Amino acid sequence: MLQRPINHFRSFLLDKLVLRPTRDRVDHGMQHRLQLPSRFGPLETFGYANYRDPGFGNAESDTGDPPDLLLLKFPGTAGRAERSSPFPTEMMRDVRTHAWTWNPPGYGNSAGRPTLRRIAEAAIDFFEASIDRYQQRYTTVPTIWLCGNSLGCATALHVAAIAQQSSSRISGLLLRNPPPVDLVVKHIARRYPFGRLIHPVADQLAPAMNAIYTAASVNVPAIFLQCQNDSLVPPTLQQRIRDAFAGPQMLVKLDGLDHDGVMDEQHLPAVRDALCWLREQSQL
């Protein structure tokens, strides 16, 4: 009888250990703000087009050319959609792209409490609502790529795994420093006395956010961007996800970068080559 409340408490602790939600106002620059429906209430999203599209952000408008690519982006545990970068659209200027980044429940002005389980559930709503908007405007949906950073990789893999159970419309993934969340928590806990006491909490991770588990169900092509000096999610832990991944993949090693490091000129040729490979795989 005590097992259920104990597990609820462990899930609560895991959410507190992993998630870093903020609700303060963040300047979103030139991005377009949109709210999409979810089972928890409105989800705040921000997006941009890398070409002139007079009807961008308006599902009822029939002006403008349809995009070749719809890019759905999932930021990391402390990320916000307002700060989303243009990556990788600046490297593919010949591809008309619409990019949308979400704020998960509890982040920004998105409704709901920030928990790992709710993020997984709301991510499916974000994906389906995005598809519905493009079907309403263009009747067809463009090629879809999912882009995840850190914890957002676990979210993207969950969405891809669920989408494949029906008629998957996802053609590619870009995953930077994907974490096996439970193993990362245990890895960090080793730095502290009595760190093993946190292991039962880490083991409470929901399967939906267990990237090793979901990666085994995803067979679409993926680029893995791996920061070689990552101290938060060491490459050895990232490798566990790559080993489980069922689809074709290409690894780009980002030498000299820690978890949040910024790519510079030395990294760009390998990234461009990987994007060309993913475009070929996606027939984009």
From TrEMBL:
Source organism, top-level taxon: Bacteria
SUPFAM superfamilies with a match to the protein in the record: alpha/beta-Hydrolases
Segment forming the signal sequence: none
AB hydrolase-1 domain location: 98-183
Protein name (Swiss-Prot/TrEMBL): AB hydrolase-1 domain-containing protein
Organism: Rhodopirellula maiorica SM1
